[in-house]
Design goal:
The complex is a heterotrimer of chains A (about 100), B (about 210) and C (about 100). With about 100 residues, chain A is mainly alpha-helical. Chain A is built from five helices and no strands. Chain A has a domain of about 60 residues. In chain A, helix 1 packs parallel to helix 4 and helix 2 crosses helix 4. Chain B has about 210 residues and is of the alpha/beta class. Chain B folds into two domains: about 50 residues, no CATH class; about 140 residues, Alpha-Beta Complex (Nitrile Hydratase, Chain A). Helices cover about 45% and strands about 10% of the residues of chain B. In chain B, helix 4 packs across helix 5, helix 4 packs across helix 11 and helix 5 crosses helix 6. The longest helix of chain B is centred in the first third of the chain and has 15 residues. The two termini of chain B are about 35 Å apart. By secondary structure, chain C is mainly beta. Chain C has a single domain, classed as Roll (SH3 type barrels), CATH 2.30.30. Chain C has a five-stranded antiparallel β-sheet. Classes of the chains: A mainly alpha (about 100), B alpha/beta (about 210), C mainly beta (about 100). At the A-B interface, helix 1, helix 4 and helix 5 of A face helix 2, helix 3, helix 8 and helix 9 of B. Strand 3 of chain B pairs parallel with strand 4 of chain C, so a sheet runs across the interface.
């Protein structure tokens, strides 16, 4: 099994801490709120979301930003619980593209 | 939200330029509402709940603890009840522990496995708290991390690093800065930074009048 | 305070070295290390089962366990420094016999 990609306490090679902070984008605020709303409605547990992030592709875990990982885990858990399907999400996105003016 | 806040929050960012995941949350949101899994109101309530939470809450609690020894005892003994006294809603925290700093002891909090943080009190954690470098280094080199934040501690001081791996949420009660006798709570609260309640630094120094 | 917890403050304990699959909240770096119980936090639902949509019952006792950094990393910057981790009961075994030496 070995160590999960999230289980990083004490791993060597960590550099200095970047203390800069960024104001959250719309989509990050939305990700945060959707996550909390799903929890408040009892749809998912925090530990299910953590497990989904632990099960992600390790390269994706490393390369995604914090809220991108949250969105990936929200999607994974909703699909696992058969609340949504990937195809539905893809279709909804295709509808948006027209609205958003995809070049 | 006013125009300045909107711009800061990236309202103007063209959606077709967002990353793969960023786009998908909009689709997920709409589908969840269409299917009645959550409502528009649920989401808006969560946004507002989160906006109301900030380090100012923690600073109020710390300042009160500094001026009122009985409150400090209650704050350390039963933090959730002490929060309720001050009109701060800590009910979302499963178990809340206050770590009292002294001249001889400093505490520092990290979540190496993810980003556990006392959000109902302090709001969202800063980016650096969630960063891989902080999560990797804090448990093995806490003094090095503190030095980066400007805190140099002698060997006689005990540094206690807490890895917040479970349902406990930790808040550091920093040491009251010297030279603040007779200061008002409001002025004391201004010295209490978010980072001093995580424990990577001490509160701001009092500036002599 | 939970009644009759297996360990009490002051008890020497060793974190089990197990490599089990699933959602584990015992960090890799602390497995196999020996410290002592500082506090009995109380009983909480088991995240290992919550993570898979189960109810997390029966609850497990959660302990605050303290370690000397030199016992974990082989070194410690400050001679008095401590490392503290919240660890569930089923990940701990008594280190009392080790402390007492061989029979």
């Amino acid at each position: 099994m070995a160590r999960g990609h999230h289980d990083i306490g004490g791993l060597p090679g960590a550099g200095s801490i970047d203390q800069s902070d960024h104001p959250l984008s719309d989509w990050e605020i939305l990700a945060d709120a959707v996550n909390q709303a799903l929890g408040a409605r009892g749809v998912k547990r925090t530990d299910e979301m953590r497990r989904a992030r632990e099960e992600m592709d390790s390269a994706a875990y490393r390369d995604m930003t914090y809220y991108e990982r949250w969105i990936a885990s929200i999607e994974a858990i909703l699909i696992e619980k058969k609340i949504l399907t990937k195809e539905e999400i893809d279709r909804k996105l295709a509808e948006f593209k027209a609205k958003w003016g995809e070049p | 939200m006013n125009e300045a806040a909107k711009a800061e929050h990236g309202h103007d960012h063209p959606k077709h330029e967002l990353s793969y995941c960023a786009k998908r949350i909009y689709a997920i949101r709409d589908l969840l509402i269409e299917k009645g899994v959550v409502s528009e109101k649920d989401i808006q309530c969560q946004i507002e709940y989160q906006e109301a939470r900030s380090p100012a809450n923690g600073a109020k609690l710390v300042a009160r603890a500094w001026v009122d020894p009985d409150f400090k005892t209650r704050f350390i003994g039963d933090p959730k009840s002490a929060c309720a006294e001050m009109g701060i809603d800590a009910t979302a925290i499963n178990e809340f522990v206050v770590l009292e700093n002294t001249e001889r002891v400093r505490h520092m909090v990290v979540c190496t496995l993810c980003s556990c943080y006392p959000r109902p009190i302090l709001g969202r954690p800063p980016d650096w708290y969630k960063s891989f470098n902080y999560r990797r280094r804090s448990v093995v080199d806490p003094r090095g991390v503190m030095r980066e934040f400007g805190l140099n501690l002698p060997d006689e001081v005990e540094v206690r690093v807490h890895d917040s791996t479970a349902d406990i949420r930790y808040l550091v009660l920093p040491v009251r800065p010297k030279g603040t006798e007779n200061w008002s709570e409001a002025d004391l609260a201004k010295l209490v930074t978010r980072d001093s309640m995580i424990g990577v630094m001490d509160p701001l120094n009092a500036i002599p009048e | 305070m939970s009644s009759a917890s297996r360990f009490n403050p002051g008890d020497p304990v060793t974190v089990k070295f197990e490599d089990r699959p699933g959602h584990i909240r015992t960090p890799w770096y602390i497995r196999g290390k020996t410290g002592w119980v500082e506090r009995v936090h109380g009983d909480f639902r088991n995240p290992e089962s919550l993570a898979f949509g189960r109810d997390g019952l029966p609850k497990k006792t959660l302990y605050l366990v303290a370690f000397n950094p030199s016992d974990v990393w082989g070194q410690s910057a400050g001679p008095k420094d401590k490392l503290l981790v919240d660890i569930y009961d089923h990940w701990l075994e008594s280190a009392a016999e080790e402390r007492n030496g061989h029979e």
